[in-house]
Amino acid sequence: MKAAVLDQHNFTQQVGELQIPEILPYHVLIKIKAASINHHELWSIKEQSKQSPVSIIMGSDGAGEIVALGLHSNPELMGQQVIINPSIDWGNDYRTFSKDYHILGFPQQGTFAEYLSIHERYVAKKPEHLSFEEAAGIPLAGLTAYRALFTKGQIRKDNKVLITGIGGGAALLALAFAVHAGAEVYVSSGNDDKLAAALRLGAKGGVNYKTEGWAEKLLKASGGFDLIIDSASGPGFSDLVYLANPGARIVLYGRTAGMLPPLDPQQIFLKQLSILGTSMGNEEEFDAMVKFVGLHQIKPVIDSSYPLAEIQQAFEKMKSGDQFGKIIINIPS
């Protein structure tokens, strides 16, 4: 099969031929139709501390068709078009993941290949309204956004919600989920074109955080926020505390802007704020997210698509930060 392998010398993606993976008991073999790139892959490459003796096939997101079954696998799964859950071995504690937890794509083979063998518990039926490309843009970003909004953020109808860093896959799906949950949603970005696009997708307002006095302007426009979903961290996090209404929840799932700044404890305890961390989610949340996507006919925003042979160009696009939505990798038939 064709697969993109992480070169252990220059950490680029190199497409080559590998063996089709063995189908273990209770596993299914999926013919991957499409995959997508996440910042998770970029962080994994950046944090590689040593070369690995094995070929690493990355990729957390994917959708395809089940073409073979392992021993004891559910025969009804044969031929199903599926979306893949990349959150592996979460465990039984809904509050946090187990010591065995990992995200599909490292060290376990990921979706940047023609075939993937994975335990049957990590597949869900692809919502019928989604193409394979669209479905491939859902898993990691959708699960992250769903847990942040519903499990940790406890979003309610008519909440005022701020989503930072609009343009990434998780932020855009968080926007769609929050709008369909009945919230009034505002967004932030350092790019005016991305703000305008978010307004077309249902955001009520937005602000460019590179402009002077942006937090004051946003507070005046919105009246403050009951729920803030943040992917950036960094120096601007103190502004989020300022923008939070009394009793608000601030849910943090990323660190693209770096370490948190010094915070005023008085603002946090007098306003009765909850600052919550989240990462990915469990199997029940994934299934609930897929059902929510199907019920509301939600589609991810797709920025661009690349064939597997051009996957390194797709990674360069992701590194640039210019994308608005998901970057899709089409896998050859």
What does this structure look like?
Helices cover 28% and strands 27% of the residues. It is α/β, with parallel strands linked by helices. It folds into 2 domains: 2-140 and 281-330, Quinone Oxidoreductase, Chain A, domain 1 (Alpha-Beta Complex); 153-277, NAD(P)-binding Rossmann-like Domain (Rossmann fold). The strands form 4 sheets. Strands 3, 4, 5, 8, 9, 16 and 17 form a 7-stranded mixed β-sheet that branches. The longest helix has 14 residues, at 139-152. It is globular, with a radius of gyration of 20 Å.
Question: Main sheet?
Answer: 7 strands, mixed
Strand content: 25-35%
CATH superfamily of the largest domain: Medium-chain alcohol dehydrogenases, catalytic domain
Specify the overall morphology. Answer: globular
Number of DSSP helical runs: 10
Estimate the mean pLDDT confidence. Answer: 94
What name does the CATH topology of the largest domain carry? Quinone Oxidoreductase, Chain A, domain 1
* Rounded Rg: 20 Å
CATH architectural category of the largest domain: Alpha-Beta Complex
Task: Look at the helices and sheets and give the structural class.
Answer: alpha/beta
**Sequence of secondary-structure elements:** EEEHEEEEEEHHEHEHEHEHEHEHEHE
- DSSP E strands, number: 17
Protein name: D-arabinose 1-dehydrogenase, Zn-dependent alcohol dehydrogenase family
Keywords: Membrane, Transmembrane, Transmembrane helix
Organism: Pedobacter steynii
GO molecular function: oxidoreductase activity
Tags for this entry?
333 residues; alpha/beta; Quinone Oxidoreductase, Chain A, domain 1; Rossmann fold; 2 domains; six-stranded parallel beta sheet; 10 helices; 17 strands
